[in-house]
Amino acid sequence: MRDFFPGLAGVPAAKSTISSVDGLQGILEYRGIRIEDLAQQSSYTETCYLLLFGRLPTKPELEKFHADLTYHRRIKYRITDLIKCLPEQGHPMDALQAAVAALGMYYPVQRVEEEETRYWSAVRLVAKLPTIVAAFARIRRGDDYIQPRDDLSFAENFFYMMFERVPNQTMAKVFDTCLILHAEHTMNASTFSGMVTASTLVDPYSVISSAIGTLKGPLHGGANEAVIHMLQEIGSTENVPAYIDKKLHDKEKIMGFGHRIYKVKDPRAIVLQELAKKMEPTEDSGRLFHIARAVEREMGHRVGHKGIRPNIDFYSGILYHQMDIETDLFTPIFAMARVAGWLAHCFEQYQENHLFRPTQIYEGLHNQQYEPLESRQHPTL
Ligand code: ACO
User: Fold this and answer.
1) Which positions of the chain have pLDDT values less than 70?
2) Whole-angstrom Cα distance, residue 321 to residue 23?
3) CA-to-CA distance for 341 and 21, rounded, in angstroms?
4) Distance between terminal CA atoms of the chain?
5) To which H or E segment does residue 27 belong?
6) Which of 77, 100, 184, 231 is least surrounded, with the fewest CB atoms within 10 Å of its CB?
7) CA-based Rg of the chain, rounded to a whole angstrom?
8) How far apart are CA 282 and CA 323, in angstroms?
9) How close is the Cα of 90 to the center of ligand 1, in Å?
10) Are residues 327 and 232 in contact, defined by beta-carbon separation less than 8 angstroms?
11) Residue 34's beta-bridge partner residues?
């Protein structure tokens, strides 16, 4: 029993050169570059290249990568037909997972070890996820799907496909930075689930659809959605102490707080909080931001000493809310960004593959007799 680690907490399951976290100092690096530097100076497209290919691209490399991504933004009409058949009240993460699995049927992968195959799967997945998210968002409200535009940046095009308008430069830059901050984060639950899937040497579309399913959970990517519901439920800064008091007393989690690795404030939450200040607040988002600051202060007094601090999900939801994005699209946007990190880990896994096959400690019965159905009795009858 000494070798049993519930949730594999702290157990190294792979070697990687993609990203690293120092949870005590609050440092996150992609390929050795600090996240704050990337947030300030890079673009999501460039960061994708860095994660996927291990170094920053030269100008011609970046131009080619950008052109390839732009060309592959469109989705087949049969994928939009599939999206039209999905229930409009269903969660967009489920729609995204289904559409990504279906993509794999149009671009079958024979040999995952081929570099060419990996490149084009990565381009298609990074390019098409935003189109799928925007298509589902529009179709479920009865609007027509909007084709992507080649003259727009990655972030501008997403907004255009969602709202039929190009965002201003500040909003496009803030959104692009959000994508950079969400692009990768070492060995978390969704990355691990993608790696387990990749270790069977299945195609990248199946890998990404596995990871999307895992990200949906409220203890992982789904927390950003829960944060907005929580702030709306709190309603005003005066209600914060009583709300936190009750939650902690009832041993319930405050969404957007705590992290397996960070024992200080998540460095991504710090950047996001600054970004929120750059955006023009709406009346509602300004109110939510004030409530969020009050929650952070109260949590700091109450449980800060235990290392329970805001994580990335705490401020990202407020920013997306400020951009008029519907709450249940926050996690799909997280997936749109994280696909870069998932793919980088998937390719690393293919490279040095070892099929994941952990063991278990069996605690059930042995040597039980099979009892015929007619003679079985319910224990309480
Ligand atoms: N609110 C209140 N208490 C908390 C919180 C929280 N958000 N997070 C941890 N704690 C407390 C626990 O109650 C527990 O207290 P105890 O020792 O008195 O029993 C202690 O801190 C340890 O908690 P665990 O859940 O065991 O810590 P773990 O490292 O496994 O949890 C996790 C990490 C799952 C993220 C947790 O902090 C949580 O559920 N947070 C809320 C959900 C959330 O924001 N998820 C997003 C994470 S970031 C991401 O996935 C992108």
Assistant:
1) 1-2, 381
2) 28
3) 14
4) 37
5) strand 27-30
6) 77
7) 22
8) 9
9) 27
10) no
11) 29
Place of tokens 């409200």: 141
Q: How far is CA 353 from the centre of its chain?
A: 24
Tokens representing 306 are 């235990």
Distance in Å, CA 249 to ligand 1 centroid = 15
Which is nearest to 45 in space by CA: 28, 17, 21, 64? 64
- Asked if residues 320 and 330 have their Cβ atoms less than 8 Å apart, the reply is yes
CA quadruple 159, 178, 286, 170: dihedral sign: negative
Average pLDDT across the chain, whole number: 95
In the chain, what is the greatest distance between 2 CA atoms, to the nearest angstrom? 76
User: DSSP assignment, residue 33?
Assistant: E
| Ligand 1, atom nearest to 220 Cα | 50
Alpha carbon distance 295, 259 (integer Å): 17
| Predicted pLDDT of residue 221 | 85
Do you know the residue count of the chain? 381
The DSSP code for 20 is E
Query: What is the Cα 276 distance to its own chain's centre?
Result: 19
Q: Tell me the one-letter amino acid at 108.
A: P
Both structure tokens of 77: 């009409």
- Give the residue among 329, 275, 372, 313 at the shortest CA–CA distance from 129: 329
Phi-psi region of 142 (alpha: psi -120 to 50; beta: other; left: phi over 0): left
Task: Please name every residue paired with 192 in a beta bridge, in sequence order, or none if there are none.
Answer: none
Pocket test residue of 11, 219, 240 for ligand 1, highest count of atoms within 8 A of CB: 219
The DSSP string of 194-223 is HHHHHTTT--HHHHHHHHHHHHTSTTTTTH
**How many whole angstroms separate alpha carbon 6 and alpha carbon 76?**
43
> What's the pLDDT tens digit per position in 201-242?
999 999 999 999 999 998 888 888 899 999 999 999 999 999
Q: Does the annotation mark 313 as catalytic? A: yes
* C-beta 220 within 6 A of ligand 1: yes
Residue 150 DSSP label: T
223 pocket-lining for ligand 1 (C-beta < 6 Å): yes
Q: Helix (H, G, I), strand (E, B), or coil: what is residue 186?
A: coil
Q: Is 255 in the pocket of ligand 1 (CB under 6 A)?
A: yes
The whole-angstrom distance between residue 307's C-alpha and the CA centroid of its chain comes to 23
Cβ–Cβ contacts within 10 Å for residue 287, how many? 16
